[in-house]
Write a structure and sequence with these properties.
Blueprint: E1 6-10, H1 16-25, E2 31-35, H2 47-63, E3 68-71, H3 74-87, E4 92-93, H4 99-105, E5 110-115, H5 117-120, H6 123-132, E6 137-142, H7 146-151, H8 158-173, E7 178-182, H9 190-196, E8 202-204, H10 207-220, E9 232-237, H11 241-246, E10 254-259
Parallel strand pairs: 1-2, 1-3, 2-9, 3-4, 5-6, 5-7, 7-8, 9-10
Helix pairs in contact: 1-10, 2-3
Length: 262
């Protein structure tokens, strides 16, 4: 058994949606979360820059003795995780759009994917779509500008609603009945999306699947904590502590949020 923390990194606050699922499933684990908000969004950057940032984030978490790292960013997963797995000894858990369950369950055979440029243009995304969405029309929509507004804490803004409406309505007109959220920032849009989408459209993201996979890997490698205490949760950001704090639960969890110039 291993009481070292689990590391998580994302290009900002979006991966906290993944952290939420992880801490629900693994309440006795300690977590360290790294929000690289200064460089958000990763989705508009080159593959070389995404890899450089992913290496930096990984080494930050390894310096803090993390036993496993969750790459809580679709763009970083699709562009960097193979390199990370080949060059570091700790296990890595990645994120990719949940196309497979959407394709299996779609009645209209039309699935929408809202994601960043970096995810939609990646070879991993295209191979996943090819392998799991045969016979399905996959509508790809770049969510340009959404991450920036979420990072600014503008979740209730008219600007965000208008931008999102422009992305969603054309996919609705083409008959989609599943909307796959291909960025870990986007679950924070679900309250708005539920008002925008008819009841026959199902929203799906990767959070629960990632949490289950993380637990499975910890069990298989004998890395689960044997602590009977509730875990601690450290959050580091290199930009706005308040924006990060605002998306975290005001509960009795042992949380700390700190600015770190990395």
């Amino acid at each position: 058994m291993d009481v070292r923390p689990i590391g998580i990194f994302d290009s900002g606050i979006g991966g906290t949606s993944i952290w939420g699922e992880l801490q629900e499933l693994l309440p006795h684990e300690d977590f360290i979360y790294l929000a690289d908000s200064r460089n958000a969004p990763y989705g508009e950057k080159s593959q070389e820059r995404i890899l450089e940032l992913s290496i930096k984030n990984t080494e930050f978490l390894l310096d803090l003795k993390c036993k496993l790292i969750v790459v809580a960013c679709n763009t970083a997963t699709t562009n960097a995780i193979n390199y990370l797995r080949e060059n570091y000894k700790v296990p890595f858990i990645g994120i990719e759009p949940a196309i497979k369950p959407a394709a299996i369950n779609s009645k209209s055979k039309i699935v929408g994917v809202l994601a960043t440029k970096g995810t939609l243009s990646s070879s991993l995304f295209h191979s996943t779509t090819k392998n799991h969405a045969a016979g399905i029309t996959v509508l790809e929509q770049r969510g340009t500008g959404l991450v920036e507004l979420i990072e600014q804490g503008k979740l209730q803004s008219h600007e965000l609603y208008t931008l999102l409406e422009g992305y969603i309505l054309p996919m609705l007109e083409k008959g989609m009945d599943y909307l796959v959220l291909g960025c870990t920032h986007y679950p924070y849009l679900i309250p708005i999306l539920k008002k925008m989408l008819p009841e026959n459209v199902t929203i799906i993201d990767s959070g629960q699947a990632v949490a289950r996979q993380t637990k499975s890997v910890l069990e298989r490698l004998d890395l689960l904590s044997n602590s009977s205490e509730w875990g601690s949760h450290q959050f580091f950001t290199n930009k706005n502590e308040k924006v990060l704090s605002n998306v975290l639960p005001s509960s009795k969890l042992n949380l700390t949020v700190s600015f770190k110039d990395f």
